[in-house]
Design brief:
Blueprint: E1 8-12, H1 14-20, H2 28-36, E2 43-48, H3 54-59, E3 65-68, H4 82-86, E4 90-93, H5 101-110, H6 112-119
Parallel strand pairs: 1-2, 3-4
Enzyme class: transferase
Protein name: choline-phosphate cytidylyltransferase
GO molecular function, one term: choline-phosphate cytidylyltransferase activity
Amino acid sequence: MFPHVYLIAGVSGDEETWRLKGRTVMDEKERTESVYHCKWVDEVICPCPWVLTLEFLEKNKIDFVCHDDLPYASDGSGDIYHEIKKAGKFLATQRTEGISTSDLILRIIKDYDKYIWRSL
């Protein structure tokens, strides 16, 4: 789609993530480091605001925000990407089912005893 892209990935900070979504498996430093090692990522912004504004995009020279297209309700907003979508700066991605942190945590909890025995 865009052959010459400089990809900036945003990683939400611990404090805001814990307040809005709950406890995380990895802290912000670990999340930032893992995203930074993705071969397509050129730069990582951490902490990145949970709700992006057009001012934030302009300040950081960001042309587009990419996320799956489902409305993301949070912190009193029906869709935290509404302003970005309205400005024509949103590109929808395809969500991959079964690989979210929530899914991974549920799989670990479901097979908790197996993992414990394996680790002993």
